[in-house]
Amino acid sequence: MDDPSFDFLKSKFHVTKKTYKVLQDLAKRRKLLSGESIVEQGNKSNNVAFLTSGLMRAYSTLESGKEITKNIFVPISFVGPFSSILKDKPSLFCYEALVDSTIFEIDFHEFIKISRANIDISNLYNRILESVYVLYEAKQLETAALDATQRYLQLKRRIPNIENLIPQYQIASYLNISPVQLSRIRKTLK
């Protein structure tokens, strides 16, 4: 039987069956209901997740109550408060399931401990960091170079039915525009 998680890790990060087995032994499968979080803003967690189904987001709530959505994660993605874990500080973001989702959680410190003794896991970690950096750089360029309509169309290409999955204010927050502006964009595109 095919295993999409293994297939992804093998194709993207050159993971062997042996390395995948190590990851399986470390990981705990968890189902999240829509609205459930893996870490709340202001809290700490040592876990990072591998999203295999559903949608998640990383968002921060300002003192004014306004939400800023930093990212929307689709399968298959790595999700978690990496900065919080690395700095041993509370998370600046809440990591929340937007729809019912399935993740595999790994204790980051255990993963690092194993990576120090296992070159394949260490190499995997390096490739994941490289991949996350490339995605981060692309997101920065998209935000700086594209206007709101282009960013919306880009999001729709990535998640074609997003309007049916999450509230408009969350889409607007991700695009860094107001819900009214999003409504105008959608109206002009019809």
TrEMBL record:
It comes from the Bacteria. PROSITE patterns: CNMP_BINDING_3 (PS50042). It comes from Winogradskyella vincentii. This is Crp/Fnr family transcriptional regulator. InterPro entries: cNMP-bd_dom (IPR000595), cNMP-bd_dom_sf (IPR018490), RmlC-like_jellyroll (IPR014710). Residues 21-114 form the Cyclic nucleotide-binding domain.
